[in-house]
Amino acid sequence: MPRPRDTHGRRVLMRSDESVGTARKPVTPARKKVGRPSRLSQPAIVEAAQRIVDTEGDGSLSMRRLARELSITPMALYHHVRDRDQLLRLLLETKARHQPRPTLPDDPRERLTAAAQLLYDVLAECPFLGEILTSEELMNASSRWVTEAVLEAALGCGFSLEEAAALYRAVAHYTGGELLIRLTRERRLAHLDHPPYRSHAMAALQPQTHPRLTALADRWPALTARDTHEAGLEALLDGFFRTLDRSGPPSPAPS
């Protein structure tokens, strides 16, 4: 008996256990499943990373931890973010875009001082400070808008564009050094269960060999713990202004 055909004239497939002459419905090939559209994007990844930082601290953020937060594999995460450095850069750039921009003073010198101090204030509030201070890329990501403000203020004071760049570099190095020393000291003291070695070393000094240090020994911890960044910044800028006064009017900056 010939096999039945469908409406298009094609022979209908039959299972091996079908009785001859018994027509059955055609076997329809299974459709290929369409994968669920990816819900991953860089903004979603950054949002999840920020959530981890806010709830667990910046020390908890890793690519594996982030993958668990997103319920994906680490390999899936790497399709969107190259490595942890890129993740931190995206995180810091997002934070910088949402930071409020304070109004700076109108006086050129006061404006420059305020912009330079702003660099310290902005960086001090950033997560991953230790990594930022040792990476030019991350530092730029977190404070690029402050850099622009410092350069603009320096030009307003009469510095050339090249002099403004040198001034910013000095301010950034001074600020970075201050913050790195503070961060290192705070981390070290937080894990000590005994007086720091410095206290023992200062107590062991003799007036005959170290008269100035022994005179300050009792006050040394308090003196060195003071926040003197602003005073140091003023002194640094004073040096640049003295150089500007000696060199005379700069050539016009390119528009």
UniProtKB/TrEMBL annotation:
The keyword Chloroplast is annotated on this UniProt entry: no
Biased composition (Basic and acidic residues): 1-18
Domain HTH tetR-type: 39-99
One BP annotation, GO: negative regulation of DNA-templated transcription
DNA-binding region per Swiss-Prot/TrEMBL record: 62-81
Region (Disordered): 1-41
SUPFAM superfamilies the record matches: Homeodomain-like, Tetracyclin repressor-like, C-terminal domain
Alphabetic keyword roster: DNA-binding, Transcription, Transcription regulation
Any GO molecular function: transcription cis-regulatory region binding
InterPro entries xrefs: Homeodomain-like_sf (IPR009057), HTH-type_TetR-like_transc_reg (IPR050109), HTH_TetR (IPR001647), Repressor_TetR_C (IPR004111), Tet_transcr_reg_TetR-rel_C_sf (IPR036271)
PANTHER family per record: HTH-TYPE TRANSCRIPTIONAL REGULATOR BETI, HTH-TYPE TRANSCRIPTIONAL REGULATOR RUTR
Stated name of the protein: TetR family transcriptional regulator
Species of origin: Streptomyces chrestomyceticus JCM 4735
Lineage of origin: Bacteria, Bacillati, Actinomycetota, Actinomycetes, Kitasatosporales
